[in-house]
């Protein structure tokens, strides 16, 4: 993925939780889009860090979660909603049961974190267990320049 990658359209979500949101609502402020799955333990460990980023930059940073199923066991929207509530994921959540959004991002991993500039261009992305800490440092630098 190239750094000048532009945020894809998000309308391919099969379901939404908390709030229906699209690309156009995210432009104008930096946006963090994070991919996760209900059976991903590394994703669940990252949720408190994502929540702290969301709260720290509330009103200045858009945060969106994308649930990307890893198997057929991850397709139940009620299970996704229950897990989201259990971990206090209050940001808009797109459920990508067809992997159309993941395909637009060329994403095959969870957790994965994509930070976009207000104009929709990719600033940085990280994947894996430590990715949330790396993206948090970039977000801190973005707002403290």
Automatic annotation (TrEMBL):
One Pfam family linked to the record: AhpC-TSA
Keywords: Disulfide bond
InterPro entries from the UniProt entry: AhpC/TSA, Thioredoxin-like_sf, Thioredoxin_domain, Thioredoxin_ResA/DsbE_sf
Keyword Disulfide bond attributed: yes
Entries under PROSITE patterns matching the protein: THIOREDOXIN_2 (PS51352)
Keyword Disulfide bond: yes
Domain Thioredoxin residues, every copy: 1-144
GO molecular function, one term: antioxidant activity
Domain of life assignment: Bacteria
PANTHER family hit by this protein: THIOL-DISULFIDE OXIDOREDUCTASE YKUV, THIOL:DISULFIDE INTERCHANGE PROTEIN DSBE
Protein name (database record): Thiol-disulfide oxidoreductase
Organism of this sequence: Sporolactobacillus inulinus CASD
């Amino acid at each position: 993925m190239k750094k000048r990658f532009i945020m894809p359209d998000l309308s391919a979500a099969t379901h939404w939780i908390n709030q229906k949101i699209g690309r156009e609502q995210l432009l104008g402020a930096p946006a963090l889009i994070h991919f996760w799955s209900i059976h991903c333990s590394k994703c669940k460990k990252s949720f408190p860090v994502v929540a702290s980023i969301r709260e720290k930059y509330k009103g200045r940073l858009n945060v969106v979660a994308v649930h990307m199923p890893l198997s057929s066991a991850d397709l139940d929207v009620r299970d996704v909603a229950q897990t989201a509530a259990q971990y206090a994921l209050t940001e808009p959540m797109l459920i990508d049961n067809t992997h159309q959004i993941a395909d637009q991002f060329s994403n095959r991993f969870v957790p994965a974190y994509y930070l976009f500039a207000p104009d929709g261009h990719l600033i940085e992305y990280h994947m894996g267990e430590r990715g949330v800490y790396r993206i948090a440092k970039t977000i801190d630098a973005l707002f403290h320049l």
